[in-house]
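Try this one yourself first.
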């Protein structure tokens, strides 16, 4: 459908833990009929280890290298058909990843929400997140990363909204049509 009409090559969801990147990504993929790729899942498949194991066994610095290599492979493999991509919460805060996405001409969307809501969403989910620590540390990391997230092409406020609403708003913000 509209990839060539719109000029959108990929919709890349960025933002903090609990922003809804994976669930909104899956909804966008369904609505647009574009394949969905979750970068953390790609890292786990390449490594044959969970994100939690990578952090515990190898540390964050190694995780960041693996994350960058996985993103590069995703960009390098991309064909002419558009896709939806969800990044992990720290990926877009790394300058090398942001540069890679800018060079690829991929459209970045910052899914934002108040920190209290992000923290609550993370508490409600079963997913093990090595960098989800206590509330004050969560806030500190969010504050440090927010200026990076704001460099995305579009910011969508997700506070109090459900996944379908956020996906519809994202589609609208990019001028994409469904059909
Ligand atoms: C991370 C967020 C996680 C995952 C890893 C590191 C971060 O992804 O990539 O645990 O640095 O904020 P989610 O944002 O999907 O939880």
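Now uncover the answer:
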């Amino acid at each position: 459908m509209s990839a060539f009409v719109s000029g959108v090559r990929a919709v890349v969801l960025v933002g903090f833990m609990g922003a809804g990147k994976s669930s909104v990504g899956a909804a966008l993929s369904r609505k647009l009929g574009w394949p969905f790729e979750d970068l953390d899942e790609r890292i786990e498949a390449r490594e044959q280890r969970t994100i939690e194991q990578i952090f515990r066994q190898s540390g964050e610095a190694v995780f960041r290298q693996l994350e960058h290599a996985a993103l590069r492979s995703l960009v390098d493999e991309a064909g002419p058909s558009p896709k939806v991509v969800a990044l992990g919460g720290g990926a877009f805060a790394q300058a090398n990843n942001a540069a890679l996405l800018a060079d690829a001409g991929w459209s970045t969307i910052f899914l934002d929400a108040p920190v209290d809501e992000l923290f609550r969403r993370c508490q409600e989910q079963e997913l093990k997140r090595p960098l989800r620590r206590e509330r004050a540390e969560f806030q500190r990391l969010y504050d440090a990363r927010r200026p990076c997230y704001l460099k995305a092409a579009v910011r969508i406020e997700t506070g109090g909204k459900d996944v379908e609403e956020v996906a519809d708003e994202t589609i609208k913000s990019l001028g994409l049509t469904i059909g």
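Discussion: Residues 17, 21, 40, 51, 88-90, 129-131 surround shikimate-3-phosphate (CB under 6 Å). The longest strand covers residues 107-112.
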